[in-house]
Amino acid sequence: MKKEVGVIMSVLKPVDDTRMYEKMAQSLVGTGKFSVNIIGFYSNTHTASSDISFYPIFNFKAQQLIRLLANFQVFRLMLRIKPNFIIVTTPELAPAVLLYKSVYSRVRLFYDTRENHSRNIVYHHQKQKRARKWLARLIDKLEQQLARRSGCLLVAEQGYYQEKPWLVDFSAVLLENKVIPLTQPLARKVKQENLCLLYSGTISDVYGIWEALSLAKQLYQALRNRMVFRLIGHVTQLATYHKLQAIASDNPWIQSTISLSPVPHGQLLEAMQESDFGMVCHRILPSIENCFPTRIWEYMNYELPFFLQDHSPWVEYCQPWQCAVPINFSQSDWPIEKVVEKVERTRFYPRGKPLDIYWEGHKFISVIDKSS
After folding, report:
1. In this structure, what are the phi and psi dihedrals at residue 197, rounded to the nearest 5 degrees?
2. 349 and 11 in contact (C-beta within 8 Å)?
3. Are 263 and 234 in contact (CB under 8 A)?
4. Which residues of the chain register pLDDT less than 70?
5. Per-residue pLDDT tens for 212-268?
6. What's the DSSP call for residue 183?
7. Cα gap 308→75, rounded to integer Å
8. Cα–Cα distance measured from residue 300 to residue 321, given in angstroms and rounded to the nearest whole number
9. Is 199:229 a contact under the CB 8 Å cutoff?
10. What SS3 state is found at 21?
């Protein structure tokens, strides 16, 4: 049987991005019915599957307008690949995708609304506010154009139905960015003399890096230097990167593995397995308040307890599993001795982890199959 050819594309996510590669692409090729081509940002990772091909054709900064010129590269590449279906995750690529669909009308299109791009543009940056509002309106229009031509929308966050009321006008499936089950039983950690506190994933102001450092420093002092702070992930701003490098060099108790490009997901998972406590300290901005951090599901998968921003939807989800210590990261005068006592005396995950944290690959495959 001839395999259907699919393309999954993003203008900024790396080709080995966990949602595009580990979840979507591997779910598709696992059926034996598909081959997949991933177009994305440059990465050193190479695919291990003969049915998955990487096209790392982008290598530029997030702020550069050259992102819009990527459409020419994408269109030419699709002419070579000749896909049966396309999954596009960033609205900047709408011109190339919609032009291709107008030429090859039988190609099936899916728009993966994995982020609220317009809110990110407005609320994650402080400079050029007027220009950013104009750009956000343009992104909204591109998204709606993609929605009109898509056979189905893939919605990564329940909260997007509230933020994007136009979603109800189209066929859409909620496909949250949950985690892949572990392939082998979770190894029990050997209790170490020093507590290993982890901040992993995207590192930025809006994800609370400075609040995390402030709490880590107070914990380090309260634990009488019996703690290491492990910092690993992709830093989105050059100034933040240099500042963190300087802080880490002056503080030997900070173990820094940071990069200006995405860190391979496997390294992040290894860090979770090796750590004692994590941090989810996102600032509650309008671009974040209705989202659910994937970091929570990842920490739960490894039964890693964590400090959690005191945001009621997140706290309510975690509470039955006793997996987190809620804390208001916007304040700086934490009752640190009580925090330490809670970390040392609480029995975390007494009932294990929930079963609803896992990627719903069957739902995803069903959407692709029904469209053929």
Report:
1. -100, 130
2. no
3. yes
4. 60-68, 125-127, 188-191, 372
5. 999 999 999 999 999 999 999 999 899 999 999 999 999 999 999 999 988 889 999
6. S
7. 43
8. 9
9. yes
10. helix
Half-sphere exposure of 249 toward its Cβ, with a 13 Å CA cutoff? 6
Residue 130, both tokens? 């007027």
Q: Are strands 277-280 and 306-309 parallel, antiparallel or unpaired?
A: parallel
Q: How far apart are CA 202 and CA 120, in angstroms?
A: 14
336-361 tens-digit pLDDT: 999 999 999 999 999 999 999 999 99
Q: Say how many Å lie between the first and final Cα of the chain, rounded.
A: 15
Residue 60 CB burial class (10 angstroms; 0-12, 13-18, ≥19): middle
pTM here is 0.93
From CA 306, how far away is CA 234, in angstroms rounded? Answer: 20
d(CA 11, CA 298): 24
CA torsion angle 170 179 205 259 (round to 10): -120
Residue 232 per-residue DSSP state:
E
At 217, list the tokens. 């420093």
Quick one: residue 233, left, alpha or beta (phi over 0 = left, psi -120 to 50 = alpha)?
Answer: left
What is the helix (H) or strand (E) element at residue 258, kind and residue range? Answer: strand 254-259
Sorted by sequence, the CB contacts under 8 Å of residue 142 that are 6+ apart come out as 91, 92, 94, 95
Contact 7, 21 (CB under 8 A): no
Contact 292, 219 (CB under 8 A): no
Please report, as a single letter, which amino acid is at residue 145: Q
pLDDT value of position 63: 47
